[in-house]
Amino acid sequence: MPLTPIPLPGADLQFDPAFLPEAEAAALLASLTAGVAWEQRNIRLFGQEFPQPRLTAWYGDAEARYTYSNLTWEPRPWTPTLQALRQRVEAAANARFNSVLLNLYRDGRDSMGWHADDEPELGPTPIIASLSLGALRRFRLRARAGLAHPPLSLDLPSGSLLLMRGATQQNWQHALPKTTRLLGPRLNLTFRWVAGQA
Ligand SMILES: O=C(O)CCC(=O)C(=O)O
Ligand SMILES: [Fe+2]
Question: What is the spatial distance between Cα 36 and Cα 56, in angstroms, rounded to a whole number?
Answer without folding.
Answer: 9
